[in-house]
Amino acid sequence: MPPLRLQDAHLHLQSSLLMADSDAIVKQAQDVGISQMVVNGTSPLDWDEVSELAHRYPEIIIPSFGLHPWKTPEIKDGWKDLLIEKLDSHPNACIGECGLDRWMTGLDKQAQEGAFVFQLKLASDRNLPISIHILKAWGWLLDILQETPTPTRGFLLHSFGGSTEIAKQLAKHGAYFSFSGYFLQQRKIGVQDTFRSLPRERILIETDAPDMTPPPQWISHSLVNQANHPANLSSILTGFAEVMDEKKKRWLSS
């Protein structure tokens, strides 16, 4: 049987932990059925690497350019124009990783919100996919969504760790939710319960490589630096199907 065709909804192949071995990593991912990867930039400092990967692997890499909330303190004026240039130069590009974060200390709330709202409006104006990072900021996000347009195609909350109630509210705004291998840990039963409550058509799977490494039993591909490998996506999907109390074939055929 040929391998399943999968798409990694969110990862960072441009990371220094992966970039040097990208040829081998992409080949290994393709060998287990990963046909596409959404590679998310986090600031102008890595957008060129994302662009390079998209040109090097045009059939598999979907580039995404965004300003991550953790990066807002180090970015100067001009990033908005550069973001638009990157989107214009890649017709299949997405926006992100961007978002809001109250977990990381020392971040300016106003700077975070201004950057996020700009990117959300840009995604709405162009009806582009947008990958959103939220940590301990669900109420803040909901307040913004009440006042800010979103893409008619919806938006992705990557590695979604919110509650079932929050998920229901966000789904009304058009949210999609991606599950990362990190949530296969037994102690993440609350997140697993939330995903059981979501409509299947609103769920995506991601590695967030090189981060969000799954538990050892769901690691099919290891790296010397112990980073999460994009090829782990297939085993993460299998683990997710088991968590949902469903067989893999039933999940994929629905």
UniProtKB/TrEMBL annotation:
<feature type="binding site">
    <location>
        <position position="158"/>
    </location>
    <ligand>
        <name>a divalent metal cation 2</name>
    </ligand>
</feature>
<feature type="binding site">
    <location>
        <position position="10"/>
    </location>
    <ligand>
        <name>a divalent metal cation 1</name>
    </ligand>
</feature>
<feature type="binding site">
    <location>
        <position position="133"/>
    </location>
    <ligand>
        <name>a divalent metal cation 2</name>
    </ligand>
</feature>
<feature type="binding site">
    <location>
        <position position="12"/>
    </location>
    <ligand>
        <name>a divalent metal cation 1</name>
    </ligand>
</feature>
<keyword id="KW-0479">Metal-binding</keyword>
<dbReference type="GO" id="GO:0016788">
    <property type="term" value="F:hydrolase activity, acting on ester bonds"/>
</dbReference>
<protein>
    <recommendedName>
        <fullName>Hydrolase TatD</fullName>
    </recommendedName>
</protein>
<dbReference type="InterPro" id="IPR001130">
    <property type="entry name" value="TatD-like"/>
</dbReference>
<feature type="binding site">
    <location>
        <position position="208"/>
    </location>
    <ligand>
        <name>a divalent metal cation 1</name>
    </ligand>
</feature>
<dbReference type="Pfam" id="PF01026">
    <property type="entry name" value="TatD_DNase"/>
</dbReference>
<dbReference type="GO" id="GO:0046872">
    <property type="term" value="F:metal ion binding"/>
</dbReference>
<dbReference type="InterPro" id="IPR032466">
    <property type="entry name" value="Metal_Hydrolase"/>
</dbReference>
<feature type="binding site">
    <location>
        <position position="97"/>
    </location>
    <ligand>
        <name>a divalent metal cation 1</name>
    </ligand>
</feature>
